[in-house]
Specification:
- The chain has a domain of about 190 residues: TIM Barrel (Alpha-Beta Barrel).
- Strands 3-4-5-6-7-8-9-10 form an eight-stranded parallel β-sheet. It has a two-stranded antiparallel sheet with strand order 1-2.
- It is globular and about 55 Å long.
- The two termini are about 30 Å apart.
- The mean pLDDT is about 95.
- The protein is about 40% helix and about 15% strand.
- The protein has about 280 residues and is an alpha/beta fold.
- Strand 6, helix 4 and strand 7 form a beta-alpha-beta unit.
- This is 2,5-didehydrogluconate reductase (2-dehydro-L-gulonate-forming).
- Belongs to the aldo/keto reductase family.
- It holds the Pfam family Aldo_ket_red.
- InterPro entries: AKR, AKR5G, Aldo/ket_reductase_CS, NAD(P)_OxRdtase_dom_sf, NADP_OxRdtase_dom.
């Protein structure tokens, strides 16, 4: 059982990644993202997830620096945007992300979207493999890859992705993808775990929340962890950042887990990876 904010999962290359972290999608560059990152770290978070497309890497870096917590204690993720896919472009994009963050290395670097061009994401993956071999990043992975994208990548990859970060919540339980990733030793990670607030008035979840004396958000986030999915809810309010992480003092029963699983409708709140081309979530 995942029992604290500092608990980690060991990726297939031996790197330890926190089960729980802070996402900063749509968090404004400047004081908003700086304060959000500082509040999270102050309250025990050790994983921060950003991306080039979010345009807030500088603020994330500033928040990390001002947090007073040592770099080696943190797990920082960023992602290469679609416009920077390709071998040389991805290498340059990584350097730019690192510069903006003010860091010497990343813990995890992801291809943000597969896009339509499989040859291109394979070239991008070669760049990530080079960054990994050169010690500039501790783990590499993908985001928004479906099973067929992963199969295609693995045909030529020297190094298997350590992580696949995808939209995941009780309306989109991604069962086939979860089983495939588990079989391949690729850790699944959830973005938009709360479906951007669209599940907070769901009756089934509200009933379960009452039973455990928790909020609906806390029930969903606990379900993520018990489903063995790393999760990174986003919030800019310190009280919500604290509340989101108050999920380590209870465990959902098998029956309640199954009730939540049954809410699946294969329903997305973000773009479909099959049609997504420009890399915005």
């Amino acid at each position: 059982m995942v029992s604290s904010l500092q608990d980690t999962v060991t990726l297939h290359n031996g790197v330890k990644m926190p089960w729980f972290g802070l996402g900063v999608f749509k968090v404004e560059e400047g004081s908003q993202v700086v304060e959000s990152v500082k509040a999270a770290i102050k309250n025990g978070y050790r994983s921060i997830d950003t991306a080039a497309i979010y345009q807030n890497e500088e603020g994330v870096g500033k928040g990390i620096k001002e947090s007073g917590v040592g770099r080696e204690e943190l797990f920082v993720t960023s992602k290469v945007l679609n416009g920077d896919q390709g071998y040389e472009q991805a290498l340059a994009a990584f350097d730019e992300s690192l510069r903006k963050l003010g860091l010497d290395y990343l813990d995890l670097y992801l291809i943000h979207w597969p896009g339509k061009d499989k040859a291109k994401f394979k070239d991008t993956w070669r760049a990530l493999e080079k960054l990994y071999k050169d010690g500039k990043v501790r783990a590499i992975g993908v985001s928004n890859f479906n099973v067929h994208h992963l199969e295609s990548l693995l045909e030529d990859a020297e190094i298997k992705p350590m992580v696949n970060q995808v939209e995941f919540h009780p309306r989109l339980t991604q069962l086939e993808l979860r089983e495939y990733c588990k079989k391949q030793g690729i850790q699944l990670e959830a973005w938009s775990p709360l479906m951007q607030g669209k599940l907070l008035d769901n009756e089934v979840l509200a009933d379960i929340a009452k039973k455990y004396n928790k909020s609906v958000a806390q029930i969903i986030l606990r379900w993520d962890l018990q489903s063995e999915v790393v999760t990174i809810p986003k919030s800019i309010k310190e009280h919500r950042i604290i509340e989101n992480a108050d999920i380590f003092d209870f465990e959902l029963s098998k029956e309640d887990m199954e009730k939540i699983d049954a809410l699946n409708k294969d329903e997305r709140v973000g773009p479909d990876p099959e049609t997504m081309t420009n890399g915005f979530e």
